[in-house]
Design brief:
By secondary structure, this protein is mainly alpha-helical. It folds into 3 domains: 231 residues, no CATH class; 78 residues, no CATH class; 105 residues, no CATH class. It is built from 16 helices and 3 strands. Strand 2 and strand 3 form a beta hairpin. Helix 3 packs parallel to helix 6, helix 5 runs antiparallel to helix 10 and helix 6 packs across helix 7.
Length: 469
């Protein structure tokens, strides 16, 4: 009788269940303590009428957060741990099945270990809800929403962890890089914005950092699960990203060379990308740290130098798996020259960012000392805006004077200067924000006095003038 290959391999399923099934059971126990047990104690408590849930995510919120971000990563690590151990790799790949079938079995069992505990917990919550009158604690729609959001977010974290596992040969590095990769979009933007203010005069890092970036990073989104809706643009993007990472992981797995077991990165082209990416992040972090602690330009450049050296050396240690590495000075100098060139391009300001002042497109203007009242993703139209034509022209004239004097007089350094924040609200709904730290603040007092003495500005800063008589 000829042998027949099927998609479901019973022996492989049993092997996965024996080696990784304990994580699914651990996850189930954790969810039981976080939700059903917590709610049961409230039901049995005689004083439970004083307790209310905002939603199911508010029950043991921190514990749920840990489960959401830890369990999927552990599942990905243990499911694909055979890729990091030579004997296990030889055993799995000696089976009469293709890599595609192995991959599908691992991924589907991972989703099963995530889904079953959520379904079991949700079923118990439904039983509680139908047996006891606890509508004020949660409703049936709250249960479905909790189940859907939890699974979607965990599926994405699991897919990212699988993707990282396909390019690494170390389980520890897989876990570490997964969390770095998940937080990278927000972290890199924060570091970049914190350093841009030294290159572009007028750039307001505080304003742009007030954006809510939690949705960009699933890791940070897990800290605000209660703000996610089940059927929304955010969850659709998460689902599509999950499919994308799983497809990329399959392609990488099929191209992965088995002899690269235990290496930091199994694809040679990724190694320089990791090394220079780490160097760049450490450079930005060190510069940002010294800028916030000292504010002195000398210390900031010292931070850039120390951060880049440390990041480059740390990258070599990770790649070569030893601290006794040879420092390639030539490659490091080439990297340094590239960074300096990019910084000079920004400093030259080819897009005329420093001198850009909106003209007739302005509908209203805000001027103050800080952007603390604004978030770049909101459409705030409160009384702090100036709308009268003469006040708009006065603020624009002040802005023009700051730009012109800034060419010869120190503008842009944080220490020792008075801050001025200007926000243009354009007619098309867009905004233009600039922030300056003026070392020569007294020279602008005549222009500021014209703005501050106007009746419209006085109303924006004095709430008593808004009280109806």
């Amino acid at each position: 009788m000829s042998s027949r290959m099927t998609w479901l391999n019973r022996e492989l399923v049993i092997y996965i269940f024996r080696s990784t099934g304990w994580l699914g059971f651990l996850y189930l126990v954790g969810l039981m303590f976080a939700l059903p047990w917590e709610i049961l104690t409230l039901i049995l408590n005689e004083k439970n009428e004083f307790v209310e849930f905002e939603n199911l995510f508010s029950s043991q919120q921190r514990f749920q957060f840990v489960l959401v971000i830890v369990i999927p990563v552990l599942l990905a690590i243990f499911l694909f741990r055979f890729l990091q151990i030579r004997q296990a790799s030889d055993f799995i790949h000696s089976l009469p099945i293709t890599r595609r079938i192995v991959y599908v079995h691992m991924v589907m069992m991972g989703f099963l270990f995530l889904a079953l505990p959520i379904i079991c917990t949700g079923s118990i919550l439904i039983l509680f809800q139908s047996a006891v009158d606890i509508e004020r604690l949660y409703t049936l729609s709250d249960i479905w929403s909790w189940m859907g959001i939890t699974f979607i977010l965990e599926a994405l974290i699991f897919a990212v962890a699988v993707f990282i596992g396909m390019i690494t040969g170390s389980s520890a590095l897989q876990g570490l890089l997964t969390y770095i990769f998940l937080a990278l979009p927000v972290g890199f933007f924060v570091l970049l914005a914190g350093n841009m203010k030294f290159l572009l005069t007028g750039f307001s890092a505080d304003y742009y950092l007030k954006n809510n970036f939690n949705g960009i990073s699933p890791l940070l989104a897990a800290t605000e699960l209660e703000k996610i809706t089940c059927f929304s643009f955010q969850t659709v993007i998460y689902a599509l990203l999950t499919l994308l990472f799983l497809m990329l992981s399959l392609v990488l797995y099929q191209r992965r060379k088995l002899e690269h077991v235990s290496q930091a990165f199994v694809f040679p082209k990724i190694r320089p990308l990791f090394k220079f990416g780490l160097t760049k992040c450490m450079l930005l972090f060190s510069g940002f740290y010294f800028s916030e602690t000292t504010g002195e330009i000398g210390w900031i450049f010292f931070g850039y130098a120390i951060g880049s050296l440390f990041g480059y050396y740390l990258g070599e240690i990770i790649l070569q798996k030893t601290w006794r590495t040879k420092f390639n000075l030539k490659v490091y100098l080439v990297f340094t020259m590239v960074i300096i060139a990019l910084a000079l391009i920004l400093k030259i300001d080819l897009i005329q960012y420093k001198t850009n002042i909106p003209n007739s497109e302005v509908s209203q203007i805000y001027i103050g000392n800080t952007p603390s009242f604004f978030e770049a993703d909101t459409s705030y139209t409160g009384p702090t805006f100036l709308k009268q034509k003469e006040n708009i022209e006065a603020v624009m004239l002040l802005h023009q004077q700051i730009i012109e004097k800034g060419k010869t007089i120190s503008v842009g350094e944080k220490n020792g200067g008075q801050s001025v924040f200007i926000m243009y609200q354009l007619k098309d709904g867009k905004r233009v924000a600039r922030e300056y730290h003026l070392q020569n603040y007294e020279s602008y007092l005549p222009l500021l006095a014209k703005i501050h003495e106007s009746s419209e500005y006085k109303k924006t800063v004095n709430e008593l003038l808004h009280v109806d008589r």
